[in-house]
Amino acid sequence: MKLKFAKYQATGNDFIIIHNVVDHHYLYSPVVIRQLCHRQFGIGADGLITIEKKSAYDFAMLHYNADGSRGGGLCGNGSRAALHYAQQVGLIEQKARFMALDGLHTGHVANTNIHVSLQDVTLIQPMNQGYFLYNGTRHYIEVVDDVREVDMTLVGFSRRKMAPFENEGVNLNFVQLTQGNLLLRTCECGLETEPLSCGTGAVASALVSSGYYGFQSPVEVVTQGGTLWVSFTKLSNGHFTDIHLIGRVDQTFHGVVDLHGLIGNETHR
């Protein structure tokens, strides 16, 4: 079976996107996802997104991690890539209402800058040496002196199942505060290598920087793959609403992949 796809990057966080609205050519398979996302034996990506039909919405998006698992919540950069792709294939013009795993989102396309809304955040919980919050995805944030010095193998990936997240896991973010912006590195559930960017991690870090360190909207977040902006309204009770993730998205290429030949390479994993 041959499958059409588009490859996107959103500040270095890269995705394979499949248009699954009409014929439903792609059905969920962890083996196929692992091979498509494999950087030596497949296309290579941090994850795979399918664009689906959803009544009363412009589309729905399903996100899968590179290890073949289903995404545990919202993928912020993936949502921005999906919005750009939806415009390219004619599903939307500039604005969209779409469904993700955590519910309704809106967004709009402004050339290559894509804006996507996130759900309100009503609780940032101090925990251990950092902070936990849920913004469509579980995130734990630690403030460090120098993100370049963080050993992700020692203090990042090994702690994704730390208490109390032994069952579902948590995404870890290490944030350096500067006078003008945040510097961010993230290790995600479902990825065994460090991504160049994490959209929901950028949002979580920006809200922590506002709630505890006095940063004002919009907050500039610099990742290894590029710059993101997070805008929001902070209410007097400490809740955050009207949250948006903003940044550049690019389609890097598109093509057709032969799934029969691809699956045979699973033995190389």
Written account of the structure:
- The protein is α+β, with helices and mostly antiparallel strands and 269 residues long.
- It has two domains: 2-112 and 250-268, Diaminopimelate Epimerase, Chain A, domain 1; 118-248, Diaminopimelate Epimerase, Chain A, domain 1, CATH 3.10.310.10.
- It is 17% helix and 40% strand.
- It has five helices and 16 strands.
- The chain has helices at residues 30-37, 76-88, 152-155, 199-213, 259-263; strands spanning 2-10, 13-19, 47-52, 59-65, 95-100, 103-110, 113-118, 125-127, 130-134, 138-143, 171-177, 182-187, 219-223, 226-234, 240-248, 250-258.
- The protein has a 16-stranded mixed beta sheet with strand order 8-9-10-11-12-13-14-15-7-6-5-4-3-2-1-16, sandwiched between helices.
- A hairpin with a 2-residue loop joins strand 13 and strand 14.
- The longest helix has 15 residues, at 199-213.
- It starts with a strand and ends in a 6-residue tail after the last helix.
- The model has no long low-confidence stretch (mean pLDDT 93).
CATH topology of the largest domain: Diaminopimelate Epimerase, Chain A, domain 1
Report the sheet with the most strands, covering strand number, pairing sense and barrel closure.
Answer: 16 strands, mixed
Structural class: alpha+beta
Give the amount of beta strand, in percent.
35-45%
Distance between the termini: 21 Å
